[in-house]
Amino acid sequence: MQLAVGGFDRNFTYLAADGGEAVLIDPTGDPATVDTALKELSGTRLRYILVTHGHGDHVELLDEVSRKYPEAEVCGHPGNRYARRKLADNEVLALGGGRIETLYTPGHSRDSVCYFADRSSLFTGDTLFVDCVGFARKPEGLYSSLKRIAKLPESAVVYPGHDYGCVPHRTLAEEKRSNAYLNCPTLEEFKQQLKDMD
After folding, report:
1. Per-residue pLDDT tens for 98-134?
2. Domain ranges of the chain
3. Residue-wise pLDDT tens digits, 171-192
4. 51: Cβ–Cβ under 8 A, 6 or more apart, which residues?
5. Who's near 33: CB < 8 A, 6+ residues apart?
6. pTM for the structure as a whole
7. Spatial distance between the Cα atoms of 72 and 74, rounded to a whole number of angstroms
8. Kind of pairing, strands 2-6 and 11-18?
9. How far is CA 85 from CA 3, 50, 82, 124, in A?
């Protein structure tokens, strides 16, 4: 469930459930929207709260949700100060009958992580947006992360951390066709694209 929560800048929070268990990704923005979505999962246990990176606009509601659901594990990159459970690269979390793989994708921040659920849904935080990418002080890291993402199954749907594109989400295949940042063949061209972003 993609929740348009407002937040700092048209943020998204995500909620998914499988087999009586649920995961919340990047709790932020309007608390009523998030609270309503969680209450609609009556009888479902919130097992994880996943954080894509530690920037404040992605964790605004983390303390509030954690107080209401103390049994939910707050997970993220080892460098993420909010994560109580530090996830390894490629670590897999079980959710009901499904699985969520952790992919380290540094660049926008040192602790950036994407979550790849059931090899069909890719939650990218601020690493990759529809038609764009997140700001990066160290473009080499982001470039490498995007190359890693580009190797994933093209049928996977990209769910970004902000509503910056022409649509709120779309497949990786569509993104590879239209996102100039994802298509840069060399690091130097990628650096120039980032300069043009300014």
Report:
1. 999 999 999 999 999 999 999 999 999 999 999 999 9
2. 2-197
3. 999 999 999 999 899 999 999 9
4. 25, 26, 58, 59, 62, 74, 75, 76, 80, 82, 83, 113
5. 3, 4, 5, 6, 13
6. 0.96
7. 6
8. antiparallel
9. 24, 10, 9, 19
Q: One-letter amino acid identity for 25?
A: I
Confirm if 55 and 79 have CB atoms less than 8 A apart. no
CATH of 2-197, one of 3.30.870.10, 3.60.20.10, 3.60.15.10, 3.40.1190.10: 3.60.15.10
The token duo for 72 is 């939910």
Q: Which residue has the tokens 């840069």?
A: 184
> With pLDDT > 70 as the criterion, what percentage of the chain qualifies?
99
